[in-house]
Write a structure and sequence with these properties.
The protein is an all-alpha fold. It has 2 domains: 59 residues, no CATH class; 99 residues, Oxo-4-hydroxy-4-carboxy-5-ureidoimidazoline decarboxylase (UraD-like, Orthogonal Bundle). Helices cover 67% and strands 0% of the residues. Helix 2 crosses helix 3 and helix 2 packs across helix 10. The longest helix has 23 residues.
Length: 166
């Protein structure tokens, strides 16, 4: 869709479109009420500013709208965003069973340690690289890791907004 079409969407449809880009209800509402956006860059800047202003619970809500890296049941669990998530994680499709098993275990360990899903902008990354990133980030302190995960969410949101407007 074009930016003009996004600006003219009925509120409920715009809310759905923005929620597909970032799962935070507050972020999506603020993006809807920030319309119209004069240019693509204004939209992207607003997205970044609104993300930066969110509370921790709002950010965790956004995290909850992502599949785990390597998760196989994308369509059943993540309907509207399954296709985008599948594209973003396409580097995992050719992974060996050993790497997929290590990712699954790593996801579980990460969630136990940090209390939220392992979030990484997976676009362009292979399964082995994603596993290495997960293992590296396991050594982070919780506050530093939350900040890193938030930065990854911001990248994902920006990519999804670009896809929305393509």
């Amino acid at each position: 869709m074009t930016l003009d079409e996004l600006n003219r969407l009925p509120e409920a449809e715009a809310l759905d479109a923005f929620r597909n880009c970032c799962g935070s209800s507050r972020w999506a509402r603020e993006m809807v009420f920030g319309r119209p956006y004069a240019a693509r860059e204004a939209l992207l800047d607003a997205a970044d500013q609104r993300w930066a202003a969110l509370s921790k619970p709002d950010r965790l809500e956004a995290f909850d709208h992502h599949p785990r890296i390597g998760e196989r049941q994308l369509r059943e669990k993540f309907g509207a965003t399954a296709a985008w998530a599948g594209q973003e994680q396409s580097g995992v499709k050719t992974a060996t069973e050993d790497v997929l098993a290590a990712l699954a275990q790593g996801n579980r360990d990460y969630e136990r340690r940090f209390g939220h899903i392992f979030l990484v902008c997976a676009t362009g990354k292979g399964a082995a690289e994603l596993l290495a990133i997960l293992r590296r980030r396991m050594a982070n302190e919780p506050e530093a890791e939350f900040a890193e995960a938030c930065g990854e969410q911001a990248k994902i949101t920006r990519l999804r907004l670009e896809k929305l407007l393509s």
